Amino acid sequence: EYCVVLAEMLSSVDSLIALAEDLLRLARVQGTETSRGAAQIGDIVREALRMARGHADARTVALTVRPSPVELPVKVRGSATDLARVLRNLIDNAVKHSPPDSEVVVEVTIVDGAVELAVVDRGPGVPVEDQPHIFTPFFRGAADTEQGTGLGLAIARGIAEGSGGRLALDPRHTGGARFVLHLPFADDIAA
Question: Has this prediction a pTM greater than 0.85?
Answer without folding.
Answer: no
